[in-house]
Each structure stands twice: as C-alpha cells, then as structure tokens.
Amino acid sequence: MTYLINSASDFAHEAVQGFAAANPQYVTAVHGGVVRSTETPKGQPALVIGGGSGHYPAFAGWVGPGMGHGAPCGNIFSSPSASQVYSVAKSAENGGGVVMGFGNYAGDVLHFGAAAEKLRAEGIDVRIIKVSDDIASNSLEDHRDRRGIAGDLPVFKIAGAAIEAGADIEDAERVAWKANDATRSFGLAFDGCTLPGAEEPLFHVEEGTMGVGLGIHGEPGVKDLPMGTASQVADLLFDGIAEEIPESHRSGGRVAVLLNGLGTVKYEELFVVYGRLAERLEGSGLTPVQPEVGEFVTSLDMAGLSLTLVFLDEELESHWTAPVDTPAYRRGDFSGLTPLKEIPARAELFTPGEESVPAAQQESEKLAADLQGVLELFEGVIAEHEAELGRIDAIAGDGDHGQGMALGSRGAVEAGRRALERGAGARTLLVHAGTAWAESAGGTSGALWGAALTAAGRALSDDSAADDPAKMQALLNAVDAVRRLGGAEPGDKTMIDAAVPFSQALEARFGESQDLAAAVTSAAVEAQQAAEKTADLTARLGRSRVLGEKSLGTPDPGAISFSLLMEALGQRLGQKS
Amino acid sequence: MTYLINSASDFAHEAVQGFAAANPQYVTAVHGGVVRSTETPKGQPALVIGGGSGHYPAFAGWVGPGMGHGAPCGNIFSSPSASQVYSVAKSAENGGGVVMGFGNYAGDVLHFGAAAEKLRAEGIDVRIIKVSDDIASNSLEDHRDRRGIAGDLPVFKIAGAAIEAGADIEDAERVAWKANDATRSFGLAFDGCTLPGAEEPLFHVEEGTMGVGLGIHGEPGVKDLPMGTASQVADLLFDGIAEEIPESHRSGGRVAVLLNGLGTVKYEELFVVYGRLAERLEGSGLTPVQPEVGEFVTSLDMAGLSLTLVFLDEELESHWTAPVDTPAYRRGDFSGLTPLKEIPARAELFTPGEESVPAAQQESEKLAADLQGVLELFEGVIAEHEAELGRIDAIAGDGDHGQGMALGSRGAVEAGRRALERGAGARTLLVHAGTAWAESAGGTSGALWGAALTAAGRALSDDSAADDPAKMQALLNAVDAVRRLGGAEPGDKTMIDAAVPFSQALEARFGESQDLAAAVTSAAVEAQQAAEKTADLTARLGRSRVLGEKSLGTPDPGAISFSLLMEALGQRLGQKS
C-alpha cells in the first residue's frame, strides 16, 4: 500500500523534488531527474544511471562522488523518457562522454538508446551498460539478455569507482561490462506491491508460498514454492546462484555480497537470512568482501528479497571497496574522497527549451527547409490515416498508435519550424524534430521515430548541402537506429518487418539506378507489401492478445505507418526531381 | 507480516548474529549484543546504546567511530536484560566510564539501571541518558517523562560525536541531555506491525484513518484522524512540533531534521512528504541542516512515519554534522575520521561466566560465607511461600511472582556458592548473586532484587570486615536502588510500599538502639503491616485488573515477599548475636 500521495500522476516527480530538497549537498534537480550539485573534473566520463522510480535508493540515491553523475528518474516502474535521459546526461556531461547504465528492460533500452543517439549526433561519446544479473529471467548462455535487478548496485558502484580512479570512457565501459558479467542475482517474493493511488497490489503471492525469481517492477516470480524458513530461503537463494559460480571461483575466492530487501521484508529478517548465508559462503570457500544487507533496489512496498554475488578479481574488488559518498550509499576509507564541502558547486546545468542552434551553411539551411516540408507531409499523411491506424492497433494492441503518431509528427513539425526560424541547418532540424517527436508521442513508437529522425540527422551536416548518397544514408541510419534500439528482428511483427525490407531494397535500387526518388518509391512498395503481410496476419489473429507462441509475436501497426510515410516520401521526391 | 524466521524465540538473537557476520569491520558479537570490533582510545567514555530489537538500524546499526561503542540488543520490542547491558558495557568500557543511552521506557529504565548499579559497584562511572522526544506521549512540562522514538538517532549521534571530539563522561552526559532537551518528534501510523511468528498485526488502523502519536513498539496512536494527503500529513507533523519551537528559534534558526519511516512507508513517499516539509521549514525561517529522510528507527513492518526536529545551537550542530562511520549510518566530511582499516582490532572483550573474583581479605570472606547463609535462608523462605505468592499475584497480576522469586533466589544461591569457592569477599559475593538473581528470575521483580543485592554489595568491601552500621547501610542501599530503578513511590502498591517504611524504621531503630538484629526485626514488622495493607487492598480490589484510577495502582505481591524476607533476616541476625 502506498499511503502518502498528493496526486498519483505527480507522485514520481514530487518524490524527485523532495529528494533533491533533502540532499542539496549531493544533487540538484534538473529536467528529468538529478545531477551532482558539485563540480566534476573536466574530461571525466559522466556515469548516468537510471530507470523508473519506485526503486529508491536506486537510482537517484547513488549520485555523488565515487558513483553516479546523474540519474534520470522515470515514472513509477517506467523508464525515463529519452528527453529526460538526454537532459540529465547533458547536465552531467563534462567533456569525457557519457556512460549510461540501466537495468535491461525494453523501455529503458529504448529511451536511453534514443537519448544516446541524440547525444552522439552532437558529437558526444556515449557508451551503454545494460545490467543483466537476474538468473531467473534467462539462460546462462543468454546472460546479457537477462533482466537487471539488484545487481545495479555493484555494477554502478564499480563503474563509478573506476571513473573516480581516473578511467576514461573506454575503460569505464570495459570495467562496467566486466562487473556485469561477474554479477548474479536471484530473488523471491512473498507479496506484491501497490502502485501509488491503486487500491490493490499488482499481484498477490498465495499465503504459505513464495514466488521464485521475482522482478523489481511488481513482476511475480516465475514459479511458486511452499514458504520456507529463513535458512531454507537462504539455501534456495545461494544454491540458485551457486549453479553459476564461474571457473575462477569454483574452489573458492572473493565475492561482493548484497542481500537486498524489496521493501517490506525488514532488516532483522534479512540479518537472520544473512547468518545462514555466511555459513554457506564459508562452506563454498567464498569470502564475502564488505557485504551489504539492507534495502538497495526496492520495489515500492513489495515483500521479497534477493541475493547478489559478484565474483571479484583484484580490479573489481578495488573498485567495490573504494570510497563512495552519495545520499543513500556511503562507504569508507572515506579519506580517499575529497570532502563534499570542498568541491565547488556545479556551475553549468542544461535547461531544456534552450537547445542551441549552431550557425548553418546556406545550402544546409535550404535542405532543412525542404526536410521541414517532409515533416509536414508526414503530419498530413498520418492525420489522414490516424483513425485507421488506431483501429489496426486496437486488434492486438492498445489502440493508441494512430494518436501517438499524430502527436509525434505534430510535435516534430512545430519543433522544426522553431529551429528553422532560428536558422537551423539540416542536421539540427532533424535532431530537434526527433527529440520533439519522442517527447510529444511518448510510448515505444514515439521513441523509435524520434531516434530515427535523430539518427537520420547524423548523416547530414549543418555545414554543407547533402547529395543523394548522403540522403540515402540518412534513411538507412534511421532504419538502423530503429532496429538497434527496438531490438526487434524481421518477423517479430513490428515496424522492422517493413523497415528492413525497405532499407535493403533502397540500397539495392539506388545502387542500380542512382535515382533516389525511384529507389525510395520502389522500396516503399516492398515495405508496403511486407506491412500488408503483417496486417493480414494481425487480422487472422483476431483479438487474441496473449498468443502464447512466441513465433507469432504481437502484431504492430508500425509497419503500416512506416510504409505509408515512405510511399509519400517517394512521391514527393519524384515530384521535386 | 514477518516472513523470514527460523524460530520466533531465537529471532532476535539470530538477527544480531547475522548482523555481526555482515559487519565484521564494525562490530563483534558479545553476550547480549555487539561492541565495536575496533580499538577505542584509552580513557574515552563508551556510549552504550540499546533497547529492544525490531528497530533496526536502531541501535546496533549505529555502533562505530563517531557514534556508539556498543549496543545491547533485547528481544523484539523488549528491553535487553540487565546482564545483556552489563556484558556489552563491560566489553565497550575502556577506562573512561559508560554513557548509557536508551529510549525512555519502563523496561529499559529498569534493566539499564540495574546494569549501571552493577558497574558502579565495580567502580565504573556510569551516566544515563533517557531519550524522551515523543511530544504525543506527555506534556511539555514533563518533557523528560516522554517516550523515546526517532529522537534516539540525533541524540546518540550528537553524544557520539562529542565523545569522538574528546568529551569526558561529564561533558558527554551534559551534551547528550542538551541534545535530548532540544529534540522533538511526532509520528503517525497507518497500520500496525506483526511480531515474528504471529499471525496478526499488533493492531490495525482503520482504513481511511491515521493514528496520531504512534509508538515504536506497535503502540497505536493516541487518537485517530481521517487520512490526509502527503502534504496534509507533512503539515500535521510540522504543526505538531511547531507548537514547541523554543524561544531561541521562534524567529528562525537552524534545525536537524529527521523524517523517519517506520518500515512500510517507503522512500518515495517520504520524499513527497519532505518536499512539503521543506516549504514549511522555510516558511518558519528554519534552515534544515543535513536533513535525513529514510528508515532510522523502525518498528518491524509498521506503516507510519515520524518527524523529528532538533533545535540546534553551535555546539549541537558541530556534533550533528561531524563524521560518523557505522554499519547503517555514515556521514562525511569523512576525512575527519581515522579509516576503520587503520584502527587495530579490539583485543579485550568481556565474556560472561568469567567474572573476576578479586582477592579478598579473610574477614570479608567470612562475612561472604555468612551472607551466603542469608541467601540460602531467602531461598528457603521463598520456596515455602512460592505458591501463596503466586496466588496473591494472580489476583491482579500474571501470577508469576512466586515462581520468579524462587528462580531468582535459587540462581543467587548458586552464583554465591561458586563465588565463595573462588574465594570471594562480601562485596563480590553480593554483586555476583545480584546478577544471577536478575538473570534467573527475569521480569521486573528479578531486575529489582538483582539491583538490590548489587547495591547492598557496594556498601561492603572485599578488603575488610563490616561493622553493623555498614551492614545497615547495605540494607538501605538495597532499598534505595529499588526505589531509584523502579521509579515507584510508597502508595503505588509495589514492593516500595513495604521497603520504604522498612528502611525508615530501620534507620530510626538502629539510631536509638545500635542493635542491628532488633532494628531489622522491628522494621520488618512495620514492613509486614504495610505489606498487609497492600494485600488487603489487593483482596478488596478483587480481580479487576484495569482499575482506571491511578490512585489505586496495580497491587504488587512484592511488598509481601519483601517483608517475609526481612522478617527472616531479622530472626537470623537475632539468633546469631
């Protein structure tokens, strides 16, 4: 039960504001989250860690010397939007690039990824670390496809310490992945949690049973077992992870240990469990290094706990035990850190709405005006098909695809117009339009279209005109970004089902004819056909939303809207040439 | 709900063991609790803080440089026993005396007090700080009679910092009381907590309401109000404390702020509340100094929160913001503390059962043998009356008085025998016997009789015989200890109803006659009459356990057993003289 709220919809935002008010020596609230309130060394990579709210102290509680540089804070259990991530990263970045860290969830992958695209378009180096420690969520072979749960703490702690010790972005990325690959977690839930304003918990665990392999967003476990004693629970957690003890630690070794309470399993209970764990660790020759027992990655008031082990080598251990000083995580030898009060306050913070428009060369300005015409064309096409796209989406989705596309394209057109008025070149126009599309549309397709426009912008320049190969590259970049961010493959019944055939056909036709308009038109036909196959399948599936068979996937009207827009683009290019 | 237990009766003990296992760099488990695992400077006062378990991080989580030196850990929501407190204090003490800190509850007052008696009998200086911050539990005039809740944190933090900064015991005591007198807390509960192994919470708060003025042992609030929004709750808490803003802060000033979650109100909710509090503080000209928002003094899984303000002056602020490094509470400028790894491990720890028996002078050994005879006499008298004392107790109590007295006297006789075998003098014999009585009997009367024997021992010496005035002083000391520790006054229907008339008569008769046997016998008659008045009253009251009128109190068979034992003592003295 969440007792203390003013308004359910403002809850996460108010929590961030209150958090920042309580910790001014550590953090400052910016659009979308918090960044350190103290200055960071010029050229130091910025560790930007985040995810949804409801997991405190993850993630905002870990911003400070020795750990994070900023934390975008999404809504409860929802990824921060790309614009939130971008805003926080812009404020945190100080010339050394950005290491983004988040738990491996689709929404986070998408929104952090879209923000990364935009930062990269500005020339900022961005590396992405997806924490994937939950052994219950996927096989050992697919370790990096697992979910991220309490392993967030050691991975970000180690990455932050490496950066504090002087790692550059390359090295910080390497150490963070190394930490992630050495980290395993396993959890249990005894009861669900309740979203602010909701009357009922997201789920219940039947009395006398426990859900094995819980998630931290109120996902119930993957199977139920009869409730055990504290020692049996300790054994279950330990034995689960013990199956994955790496070669290096089979006959003993040093491990970071985190026994994490999800919210309502309290400290004394965790210590009773830890007593047994200490015996099991000793029995396996594993020496716990600065073990942590408490609440680190919570899930509102969920009743549950998880065990995390990090199989340490010398490098990881030195970073695990290094000093850190953040609102919710502090550890000594403290003399290794400069006291906060001796660090000057951070002077430059990014404020959204004041995005810079670099001076552009005249040819690029002309192209920008032309691209604005494309955006307006898109807006018109979508408006014409909005209702139809909504109906298609409603067959197997939530019916908001048409509305989202309409809001997104409208936002992009408005942002494009403002950018043009300020003399934007082609690249800047598309980056601004992409940001606005994602922000206005929200949701998955909004983030993907936003990233697509941003990535397209990266193929263009503010300093020169673009020839047809450059324009084609922009289109290929856009499809690439969608594929990389969305993580879908052709056949998954997503926009990619149309976009990939489009992309392949475009490259082939243009290679043959060197006629961009013809190539786009021809590729759009292939996209159309692929999209219709998707639509046919959608229709055949009827209203059955949970299909059970992975091969069918969840149909997506994105393929339809993609092919419609490419068809319009081909026609426009034909008319103009 | 408490989910993770092995055995309800071992829960608190297992939690302490697991806690110590997880935090070896900070603490070592000893009998009754934990002490710092690192050495403390010779001559530094030891801050021994404690209370029941179920409040983590209070109190064990606060043991480390800059805060506590040791923490006795009682059962869930129960005071540690006097022997637990004594054991922890013995291990923590390092030549500078002991400052005991605990929340102001009857059980803690009694058991810490009894342990203090014993330590003082050994020549150790002990000061006692009873935290009394809960404004809902008593009037402002009787501030020091209020309960202790989350104010424990700032009071112990400030006392620990003062000691770290070099305060001697006198000064540490002064600063601690000053901190307590500047601290105000006010709390709300939304639902109760469940003891380990129990099926049902200790209480429920009706849905849609909140209990105002909660306790931290599952006590419900003193009144119910309709549930408010987060901001209304913040206002209620702030306005409650604002009524007691001291003169020094009426037009503004600096305050330590603690917004404490009781267990199930989670962090994001607390931050939403803090956001409003920050506005209210500002509106009153109060500047928060390093505010703390989180879980500090919990009550298992109780749903509730409390606000604590400490009205700071320069001295209190310097200690509030000083560095501290404990398992659950760490704060910088960390460079002000010696890193833990550079502090040597604590070498000498006290182990109960190996209490020292100092060499005794022969006359004192003879007296000790004689006193052992008195203990055996007491054991016999109690055995004879055990059933009757139980019956009297059952009229208005829980019927265990006879059994408790029997267990206590038997334990005392056994401990006395072992001490005699090791050559104990009179003082040591009584101190050992007192400890054993309290330990074996448990409960209130056990603690009081234990303290009485210990205090009697302080009037005697291991180095010399005792004349009659010294023996009389021993009896007066015993009654004094009972009165001081129990806090009862004549007429409250406790052992004091008999003991105080006895004490007064003893001093008067001995002054007249200089005949101890006659004086004791005569005083015992007065005690007997006083006890019978109590018993008459008990009988008249019948079985009505909750009497409603304070003047009647709760009758206590302790007065009966006291007078029986004194009568037997008088007879024995008469036979021997």
Number of alpha- plus pi-helical segments of chain A: 16
CATH architecture of the largest domain in chain A: Alpha Horseshoe
Give the distance, in angstroms, between the N- and C-terminal Cα atoms of chain A: 63 Å
Work out the oligomeric state of the chains in this entry: homodimer
Number of strands of chain A: 14
Secondary-structure element pattern of chain A, one letter each: HEEEEHEHEHHEEEHEHEEHEEHHHHHHHH
Q: What is the beta-strand fraction of chain A?
A: 5-15%
Structure write-up:
Chains A, B: This is Erythrulose kinase. Chains A, B: One of its GO terms (molecular function) is ATP binding. Chains A, B: It comes from Nesterenkonia cremea. Chains A, B: Keywords: ATP-binding, Kinase, Nucleotide-binding, Transferase. 2 copies of one chain form a homodimer. Chain A contains 16 helices and 14 strands. About 3% of the residues of chain A have low confidence. Helices cover 47% and strands 14% of the residues of chain A. A 6-stranded mixed beta sheet of chain A has the order 1-2-4-3-5-6, sandwiched between helices. Chain A has 3 domains: 124 residues, Rossmann fold (3-Layer(aba) Sandwich), CATH 3.40.50; 137 residues, Dihydroxyacetone kinase, domain 2 (Hypothetical Protein Tm841, Chain: A,domain 3, 2-Layer Sandwich); 215 residues, DhaL domain (Serine Threonine Protein Phosphatase 5, Tetratricopeptide repeat, Alpha Horseshoe), CATH 1.25.40. Chain A is α/β, with parallel strands linked by helices. At the A-B interface, helix 1, helix 6, helix 7, strand 11 and strand 14 of A face helix 1, helix 6, helix 7, strand 11 and strand 14 of B.
